From TrEMBL:
PANTHER family: ARYLAMINE N-ACETYLTRANSFERASE 4-RELATED, N-HYDROXYARYLAMINE O-ACETYLTRANSFERASE. It comes from the Bacteria. Belongs to the arylamine N-acetyltransferase family. InterPro entries: Arylamine_N-AcTrfase, Papain-like_cys_pep_sf. This is Arylamine N-acetyltransferase.
Length: 270
């Protein structure tokens, strides 16, 4: 369990106030602040010698102390630790991402389920195009969110399916799992030749009025006024963009990956 001092530091990291009670109002505030403060990123997959881990202390150090971001394996369990310390009941669910017209392998996505007085809520701050607010699991109605129109449905095949603007994002197994269950898949993401994280170097951050993404050396800003993409010409410009737009300060320049065009399309979350 995170200590009170660690909770305070985490709340400062995301610019959130401590909720008076563990209710849906506090959960909505915390998720919104996390989404708007902590970027989705996979830089450490492209820095030689960089560590990746799933334990509580490692994730806290990376996201809170070093003020970095991460993927679903990092952001969602870290956020879950904060929620548990604040009195929320949290379970980890595993999922299959919908890519290229089919579902991928199990345990390739990690999301949270929060139980509030018998009502279940889907909490996800680590998918890239996740909702800004928690989604109720008990209804299949369209949920209007600043990031789009979401639906949480239970298909005939079973599980919990999340849809955005009419398209499938992923499907979750309703049986809770342990964080340790994701260790083999984390190893696969770090080593497999067709790992989406090895073929993409991406940092993406949802803002109040849009999104900022650096994909490789392309910087894309998306707002209500439109979308603009510029090329970052060198390493200095790349590091400066990381610091300016995401608050990420690096001593080492990540290696640019060999891009597979088909896999790169999957990661277009800008």
């Amino acid at each position: 369990m995170l200590s009170d001092a660690m909770v305070d530091a985490y709340l400062e990291r995301i610019g959130a106030r401590r909720p008076e009670r563990a209710d849906i109002h506090g959960l909505r505030h915390l998720q919104e602040r996390h989404v708007l403060s902590v970027p989705f990123e996979n830089i450490d997959y492209h820095v030689e010698g960089a560590e990746l881990g799933l334990d509580r202390e490692f994730l806290y150090d990376k996201i809170v102390t070093r003020r970095r971001g991460g993927g679903c394996y990092e952001l969602n369990p870290s956020f879950g630790h904060l929620l548990e310390a604040l009195g929320y009941r949290v379970e980890i669910l595993s999922g299959q991402v919908f890519l290229g017209g089919a579902f991928g392998a199990p345990l390739c996505h990690l999301a949270l389920r929060v139980d509030l007085d018998g009502e279940e809520w889907l909490v996800d701050v680590g998918f890239g195009k996740n909702s800004r607010f928690p989604l109720p699991i008990g209804t299949s109605e369209v949920q209007k969110d600043p990031h789009g129109d979401y639906r949480v449905v239970r298909p005939e095949e079973g599980g919990i399916q999340v849809e955005l603007n009419g398209g499938i994002q992923y499907r979750l197994d309703e049986r809770p799992v342990r964080i340790e269950d994701f260790l083999p898949t984390l190893w696969w993401y770090r080593t497999a030749p067709d790992s989406v994280f090895l073929h993409n170097l991406i940092v993406s951050h949802q803002k109040e009025d849009g999104r900022v993404t650096v994909n490789g050396r392309e910087l894309t800003r998306t707002t209500a006024a439109g979308r603009e993409t510029v090329e970052l010409p060198d390493d200095a410009a790349l590091l400066a963009a990381y610091e300016e737009h995401f608050g990420i300060v690096l001593d080492t320049v990540p290696k640019q990956p060999d891009v597979d065009p088909a896999i790169r399309i999957v990661m277009q979350i800008d």
